[in-house]
Amino acid sequence: MTSASDRIRQLLDAAGMARCLDEMAAAIYQRWKGEPRLALVGVYQRGVPFARALRQRLRDRGMEPDFGKIDITQYRDDLQTMTVLPKLEGSEITFDLEDAVVILCDEVIHTARTTRAALEELLGFGRPRCVQIAALVDRAGRELPLYPRYSGIETDLPAGERVCVRFVDGDGVDEVFTCPWEKK
Amino acid sequence: MSLKTPRKDLLDIASLSDEEIEFVLANAVPFKDLFKRSVKKVPTLKGRTVLTLFYEPSTRTRSSFEVAANRLSADVTHFDIESSSVVKGESVLDTVETLESMRADYIVVRHKQSGTPNLIAKNTRASVINAGDGWHAHPTQALLDAFTLREKMRDLRGARALIVGDIQHSRVARSTSLILRRLGMSLAYLAPGSMMPRETPDEVGLFGNWDDALSWRPDVVYLLRVQSERLDEPFFPTAAEYHKNYGLTDARVGILRERGLWLMHPGPVNRGVEITDTGMNYERSLINAQVENGIAVRMSVLYWLRPGALEDS
């Protein structure tokens, strides 16, 4: 985990993050209230607690969306050259994807290559009626034409910086900050 | 758990670390989940070539590797020994040189001579997977056996497996014994004297008849295939004798059922020799599960190995 000394700047504190999550959940609710086939699907790793945070807020509003997880490891184009071979988490889509409305949740969208991989993996499970993208942080620098329908903040960062998102659920703290690329 | 040291080849069980065994078994779980999806394919090995090189006949193992490689989106080619220059006298290494020129990334090899996969591995940058060599090893069978048992028993520590049949001449018995013991199981062998290994670890029980073997209270009975070509050899029982004394007769299936024991067999089975129709229909038989799991485990092995990796097995 990135230590405090690695951070360059804070983008959101816990209160700011809560506000973003509330607004995003409100927007999803506004668009899909009454939809019985709504599902939130988080992209490993931190797209999962992000999706859970949104799901909790939708539950607070009386909705009960389905929930799933997507592991894109096998879609990585650098897999064969990685020095540390990751264990596969495995995707979990236990609900029926046919005709479902899926909100694909990733904590950050930047080039959108992860999103493309996640879409490809998701569609291996079936044919949803519709997929929308939710990202807590929408970072400029798109390399593929995929854009979030729901986002918390937009940012444009220098090439040497990356966005780090931490969730109480798993990390013990809600926070978004930037850190150097090489410090993973 | 991630793996920091890449491995080029899978040649046997003995050279694997505990961490590597766990890595392969753990990753086979999401690969098996893939079989339930509408699209049973992932792009993991897109653009890679898997070559199957079988100097001995095989239907199951070869197909299992081919399905595994196809589900990982690799290009799969079978090097047909029967119609190749091998039958005209080409040496194994000459063949490997040819395959090297074809830029194969993975070579799955089966050979009657123990050690042939090791020889090939030393002479190619491709990852070599031993799909059975002589009496020596059959590591993917061992991994799939362990995976299959883990699905049923979760923790194998302290559980007991009885392996029945031609232990001495069986690469399956050798590799599966090794992995099950590594995972904490107790082992015993039941075999006629001519099929019992000359040397076995002290802690492996040795039995000459079913009554004694079953009184050892195994949790799993693992039948080995009787190689029909060996039935004519001296000191080897006839098929009928073998069945009566060492086969899983209907009466013995009744005992397995009474005690709720798991039944395994690497296939293909000889009905009426090591097993009967009743045995094949036994509700706690894992034989079909072994076939299905074989694909998932072989996908996991292909995912794990790194062609050209420096750290050789």
Written account of the structure:
The complex is a heterodimer of chains A (184) and B (313). Chain A has 184 residues and is α/β, with parallel strands linked by helices. Chain A has a single domain, classed as Rossmann fold (3-Layer(aba) Sandwich). Chain A is 26% helix and 28% strand. A five-stranded parallel sheet of chain A has the order 3-2-4-5-6. A three-stranded antiparallel sheet of chain A has the order 1-8-7. In chain A, helix 2 links the parallel strand 2 and strand 3. The N and C termini of chain A lie close together (7 Å). The relative contact order of chain A is 0.21. With 313 residues, chain B is of the alpha/beta class. Chain B folds into two domains: 131 residues, Rossmann fold, CATH 3.40.50; 153 residues, Rossmann fold. In chain B, 38% of the residues lie in helices and 14% in strands. Chain B contains eleven helices and nine strands. In chain B, the strands form two sheets. In chain B, strands 7-6-5-8-9 form a five-stranded parallel sheet. A four-stranded parallel sheet of chain B has the order 2-1-3-4, sandwiched between helices. The chains are: A alpha/beta (184), B alpha/beta (313). At the A-B interface, helix 3 of A face helix 1 of B.
Q: How would you summarize this macromolecular structure in one to three sentences?
A:
The complex is a heterodimer of chains A (184) and B (313). Chain A is 26% helix and 28% strand.
